[in-house]
Design brief:
With 65 residues, the protein is an all-alpha fold. It has one domain. It has 2 helices and no strands. Helix 1 packs antiparallel against helix 2.
Length: 65
Amino acid sequence: MKQVMNQALKAKEVEKHRTAVLRMEMDYELATLYEAMTEKNDEKKTRCKQRLEKIRQELVRLRSF
């Protein structure tokens, strides 16, 4: 039982770490998107939006557990 609890706590810590990393990636992509918007670079905007969507999906998936 103790081993199961330790695994659950470890999984929770990994989830917290991954969430923090995703938030940092999201901040970076938002900054990059802003830059693309000011440059009027449509290709860069599209790439940023696609990456932001992937980050959003992973965050939603992590929160559902």
